[in-house]
Give the backbone structure.
Amino acid sequence: GRRMTTLLWMQAGACGGDTMSLLCASDPDVGQLFSLAGIDLLWNPSLSTEPVGELHRRVDAILDGRLALDILCIEGSIVTGPAGTGMYDRWRRGVGRHTIIAALAGKARHVVAMGSCAAFG
């Protein structure tokens, strides 16, 4: 069979409003929507039930080329401060989230800015 489309949803800039709006969907609900579209949701901070360590493992697998990433959704503004370090929104191990998002964007087939914060923030 055909491989499912993979989607990773990253929140940045302390925004969760677009996810909350998505959760209000009905007929189909968000779970049904992803299923009907053949989307394997690798991670969403509000929908995923795995511990955050699983997100880290999946991100590492994407960056290492062991896991394909079809769609990267970014919710929230990309924080670059202070002084370009991005440390006001840390990822892990002293790395700014903006660095990880840029690396993931380089691996994704499609990158989608979810909402006005991601598009203009």
